[in-house]
Amino acid sequence: MELRELISQTREAMDHGDYGFAVSACSHILESYPTCLNVHRMLGESLVEQGAFDPAYEHFRRVLTIDPLSAVAQLGLGVIAEERKDTAGAYAHYLNAWEMHPELDHLRDELVRLRRSLGQDVHLHLTQPALATIYARGGHTRRAVEEWRGITGADPDNTSAHLALAELLWRTGDDGGALTVSREVLERLPSCARALAIVTEIERRQGKAAPREYLDHYRSLDPTGDIAADLSSTAPGRDLGFLVDGNVRLPGFDIAWLHSTGPYGSAVDGTLPVREDQEAMAETNTSSEADPWEGVVREMSQGLNIAHDGGGENVVPFTWSDTDISNLTENDDLFAALLGAGPGAEDAGQSSDVDALDPSIQPFSFEDDSMSTATNDPLPDGEDWLTAGEAPIPNDAPVEPSRLLENRRPFVSESGRIDLTAGWDDLDRALSEAVPSAPSLQGYDSLIDAFSAEGIMPLDLEALDAEDEWKPLSAEEWEADDDELAAASPELRGVGGASGAASSDTGAMMSDADGDVDLDELAVLDRLAKDSMFERDVPAGSTLAVDDLGSSERDAALGETWAEFDNDIMTMPEHAVNGYTTILRSLDAEQPPSDDPVDSRDPQETDSIVSMDGLGSAFNDHTGIPLGQPISGDGPSEVPYAQSQSLPSSILIESNIDVPPALDNEDLVASIAISRAALPSSPDAGDGQQISPAVPDDTVPSRGEHGLQGDPGTSPWPRFAGGIVGLSEATSAGFQLFARLREEKASLVELGILTVDRRLGSSELKTDAPARIEPGPCRHSGDRASSPQRPLDRERLRELRAALEGDATELEATACHLEQIAAGVQEASVSRLLGEAYLRLGRPAEAALLFRRAVSQRRHVR
Amino acid sequence: MDQTLTQLLRHEEVLGAVVFSGEGLPLASAGVAHADAELVGALGASMLGAVDRTSRQIGVGPVDSVSMMAAEGMVHLWCGDGLAVVLFTEACSAAAVESLGRETLRHAAEMFGP
Predict the structure, then answer these.
(1) Which pLDDT does position A553 carry in this prediction?
(2) Which of A513-517, A568-572, A676-680 has the lowest mean pLDDT?
(3) What are the tens digits of pLDDT across the range A303-353?
């Protein structure tokens, strides 16, 4: 039979819980392959499942000698140690296994559990071997090598670390290092299959003749090639197939017999039935090792008289499958149930005769320390697992925890007596030490006494009279001098509480007829605030209380202070200007848009002659002149109104101001829209017609005076003085609105912008309407007849515009022609062109008039 | 609106006209300077408020027009639809100005009304 096949069936039996079969099969395999790694591992697992921890322990130890990096063996040893109540040992083995497989979370949980039981920190940190394993699996071989080298340097006797380093070096291609380290391992563990595999593979790859003994030795240790397969998985490029013998058979193994006879067969004379072939195999078996299980069963079968299924005195080895413990509770005796003395056994009709047991044979107990053989003591009879040339099993014990704690049983004394009050004495002692002594409490008493010295006692609710304690405090209780209060803050007189008594009697103010104080909190706070205003020469660190001052000086101080306040609040600069007005005036004084009414561009190319429409009618005084423009020959300026010498926005202002000299045409063109020099104040009006500015009536003060005679440059708004708006204080000389309105209207009429031809209540046109200012007749009347009258269209206007660029003669002719057109056609473009002609002819006043007319005409059109 | 107010100025007695909102913000004016228009708007709104309170206290109902006779001239005020129109005129009959004011207010409501 193929070995692999039997091993496969054994694994299946273990998966199905048939550990008896597994044990038998493994035992049989071991007869042929006593050092088979895989078989020892399975056998150890099966024995652990069967509760045979001691033989299992031996098999697991054997596995570790063949493969120190076997995590299964470490786990098995950990289980065995835990069963033996060796928590520290279990932790050590589990830790070894976890260091090889840090990814196993359940293993990590077990470690945490054991750490908790050991009283250690439950936080499990990565150990250096675990870190090295993680590095290796993550591909960080260099860092893994460094870690392993560090481990081996710190612990030269750590065989598993050396082996891991050798394997890692072999994987990374460091054949020399792998060979060196592997040979070191083989010196300690001659049966280390992994090291043998590495050495053999390297030497074979290097062309060296691998020693045959290495190969045979490896095949005896790992006939199934498990380690070779594991190495190949980590180094796919390496060929390790030569290590595995393809034909591994088990001689003379009849699996059917094994199944027919049941687990371990049935003993007739107290011994296990042995087949003839098995006996022959036993004779030919080169291994002199005895099956430990057979020995144990043989010993147990001697002297046993267990009733079993009505049978005779047949001894049937114990199996877990024979016992149904599913119905047992925690209070049931497990051992008794196992022996058939439990309720389940009774129900099944089985009887147990514990008394019939040989007294020398004591029931198995986990408490029996004599059963523990977790040591490296050699086997009985000095037999060795291995051949004579093999070294004994080294003691590569796993890393011990930092603190090995013995089994603590807190309420059990050393004598074994249970004392539930254990430790309480220590606790009582600690508590008594923590209680402060009597002298340390004296400070609190003194503190309380200090508080109570001035009457500040803890509130005693029981002694509190509801009607008395919660009354508002009276003046007497405040210990205030009413007279002093009244004298100190006169305003308090008028600020009363509910009584509202405006009286100098502060006492009456502060309390009503019933004597209840109804304080005005604001008044009290006011008083306190005033008290804090006292500034005197007081020593540093000390405070000045109101009571420290005399009444007279307090009065004086308060009076002075309030007087200062009054002066600060009430006193305003006489010429303070309303900020709103200032802003408005500044808007008026701002420079108008750059697009002046006289667009320097071709008028035919733009529809808008005037760009002042955006100013809105509120800013329109029908003069065509932007508001807020100071009267000066320097053109527009942004002088704020408060600083201007005169009022903006009306040509009427000029009446009191010297007419500036006429500017040249270029300056006028540049500032025609905003310069007041272009106003019709020039004495040269062309035809001699004086366009004199409106001479103001002396009886009517100019606008520049804002209704305040002799006070130019002030706001039309009432003056803010004395803290109140001077509306009611305006004199008849101020705020001459109607006068200004009349002046404004007259100017509009004079400009020709406005025609007054109606009366209220009558639709009659006035016959005495003032003559409009008409432009002067054309000087070149002779040219009138020579120039044919063409219809006024854009092309015609373009021609006329171009004609203005000519010499003076042509310019005059064009101007005359435009005059004729303007007389018959009231169009803004015509007026504008005529105004431009007048400008070029040096008649700025007439030009300004026509420009304004153009603005008005365009506005009317819209 | 400018044309409407300018037409008012064509009357001999009318010296100036201002249209302002209920809050006293001038919306349009004719014959009145900018600063004066703002002052007139503010004062007019204040006057309307005072007149309205007075009329309610008296119990004569809401006020829609006010005329003041002063030494320098007359001030006429009409209000409605959140707007107000004030006309400054020479001493004349209030009835003669009534139609002008009403018409101006109607135009203002059409232009500035919601």
Answers:
(1) 60
(2) A676-680
(3) 444 444 444 445 565 665 555 555 656 555 555 555 554 444 444 444 445
CA A604 to chain centre: 66
Closest-CA residue to A249 (of A274, A224, A225, A228): A224
Contacts of A860 in chain B (CB under 8 A): 3
Give the start-end residues of each E strand in A693-839. Answer: 720-721, 724-725
A489 pLDDT more than 90? no
Contact B34 A716 (CB under 8 A): no
Euclidean distance between CA atoms A656 and A747, whole angstroms: 15
Q: What's this model's pTM, rounded to 2 decimal places?
A: 0.33
Task: Name chain B contacts of A757, Cβ cutoff 8 Å.
Answer: 10
For B10, the closest of A617, A650, A758 (CB atoms) is: A758
Give the whole-angstrom CA distance, residue B30 versus residue B100: 14
Check pLDDT > 50 for residue A171: yes
In the chain, the amino acid numbered A575 is H
The predicted structure's pLDDT at residue A332: 56
Least Cα distance to A627 among A682, A693, A676 occurs for: A676
List, for residues A632-656, the tens digit of each pLDDT value: 444 444 444 444 444 444 433 344 4
Sorted by sequence, the CB contacts under 8 Å of residue A182 that are 6+ apart come out as: A163, A166, A170, A195, A198, A199, A202
3-state secondary structure of B19: strand
pLDDT at A45: 92
Neighboring chain B residues of A618 at a CB cutoff of 8 Å: 26-29, 34, 37
Which chain A residue shows the shortest CA-CA distance from B10?
Answer: A756
Whether the pLDDT of residue A377 is over 80: the answer is no
**Residues in A touching B39 (Cβ below 8 Å):** 716-717
Q: Which residue of B has its CA nearest to A762?
A: B96
Q: What pLDDT, in 10s, does the model give residues A408-453?
A: 566 677 777 767 776 777 888 888 888 776 655 555 666 666 665 5
What is the predicted pLDDT for the residue at A383?
Answer: 53
Chain B CB contacts of A739 under 8 Å are 72
DSSP character for A412?
Answer: B
Interchain proximity B31–A744, CB inside 8 Å? yes
Q: A559 Cβ partners below 8 Å, 6+ apart?
A: none
- The amino acid that residue A184 corresponds to is E
Nearest-by-Cβ selection for B33 from A581, A649, A717? A649
Per-residue model confidence as pLDDT tens digits over A529-578:
666 554 445 555 554 454 555 555 656 656 666 777 777 777 665 555 55
Choose among B13, B36, B89: nearest Cβ to A740. B36
| Nearest one of A859, A708, A852, A655 to A772, comparing CA atoms | A852
Amino acid identity for residue A749 in this structure: V
Q: Is the CB of B26 less than 8 angstroms away from the CB of A585?
A: no
pLDDT of residue A639: 43
What's the average model confidence in pLDDT over A102-119? 86
**Cβ pairs bridging A and B (under 8 Å):** 105
Nearest CA to CA, how far is A808 from chain B (Å)?
A: 39
What is the distance between the alpha carbons of residues A419 and A775, in angstroms, rounded to a whole number?
A: 132
Average pLDDT, chain A: 66
Which string of DSSP letters, residue by residue, matches A69-124?
A: T-HHHHHHHHHHHHHTT-HHHHHHHHHHHHHH-TT-HHHHHHHHHHHHHTT--S--
Average pLDDT over residues B62-91: 89
Contacts of A837 (CB under 8 A, 6+ apart): A804, A811, A814, A815, A818, A847
Q: Which residues lie below 8 Å from residue A619, measured CB to CB, with a gap of 6+?
A: A588, A626, A627, B34
Contact by Cβ (8 Å): A299, A291: no
**Are the beta carbons of B2 and A859 separated by less than 8 Å?**
yes
| 8 Å CB contact of B32 and A617 | no
Output the pLDDT for position A750.
82
